């Protein structure tokens, strides 16, 4: 059986090499997926020149076509974002806008190339809002052709007006670790099902 592949699009506003809470949680998800034999990689989008727009290729200098190639090469997509002002980051919004182009990019049977791919999310923040952000992301990802598994989100939010970030913790709290484990298990299960039984034309 072919090994499943996962890609994490990390939508932090923090450029490399600085530590990012979103990246830390994304790597924890990838580690859980690796335990199921899934090969994964993470891309920090803020490090790349992803042009604004809703086309698959926005022209000279656009880094999205290479990101898109990796998205289409993966079975499981993870979108990792911080919560800013109660919403996903602007980087996450740009990624979703670029993924919108997939609705007009179809195979020979007229199906979007994202059909059969699983999408999950990882969210960090210092205020409430993880459920609202996951709802926004899930709707957008589903609109773009991805399938969402049960328990497809993992998140951590610190106390209101607190100063501790996820990256500052000694490790994942038990509740986050358990949720991340469920996300990985269910995503792999669904990805295998969709690979064996694709959506009809």
From TrEMBL:
Q: What is this protein called?
A: NADPH-dependent FMN reductase-like domain-containing protein
Tell me where in this chain the NADPH-dependent FMN reductase-like domain is found.
7-157
User: What InterPro entries does UniProt report for this protein, alphabetically?
Assistant: Flavoprotein-like_sf, FMN_Rdtase-like_dom
Domain of life assignment: Bacteria
A Pfam family of the record is: FMN_red
Q: Which organism is it from?
A: Kutzneria albida DSM 43870
Q: Name one GO molecular function term.
A: oxidoreductase activity
Residues of the signal peptide: none
């Amino acid at each position: 059986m072919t090994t499943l592949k996962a890609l994490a699009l990390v939508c932090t506003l923090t450029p490399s090499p600085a530590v990012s809470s979103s990246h830390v949680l994304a790597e924890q998800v990838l580690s859980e997926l690796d335990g199921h034999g899934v090969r994964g990689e993470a891309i920090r989008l803020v490090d790349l020149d992803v042009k604004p727009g809703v086309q698959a290729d926005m022209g000279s200098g656009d880094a999205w076509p290479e990101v898109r190639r990796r998205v289409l090469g993966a079975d499981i997509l993870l979108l990792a974002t911080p919560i800013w002002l109660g919403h996903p980051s602007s980087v996450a919004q740009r990624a979703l806008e670029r993924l919108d182009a997939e609705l007009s990019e179809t195979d020979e049977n007229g199906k979007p190339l994202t059909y059969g791919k699983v999408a999950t999310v990882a969210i960090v923040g210092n205020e409430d809002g993880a459920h609202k952000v996951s709802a926004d992301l899930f709707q957008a990802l589903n609109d773009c052709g991805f399938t969402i598994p049960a328990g497809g989100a993992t998140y951590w939010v610190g106390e209101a007006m607190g100063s501790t970030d996820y990256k500052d913790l000694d490790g994942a709290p038990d509740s986050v670790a358990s949720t991340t484990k469920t996300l990985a298990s269910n995503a792999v299960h669904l990805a295998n099902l969709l690979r064996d039984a694709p959506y009809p034309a």
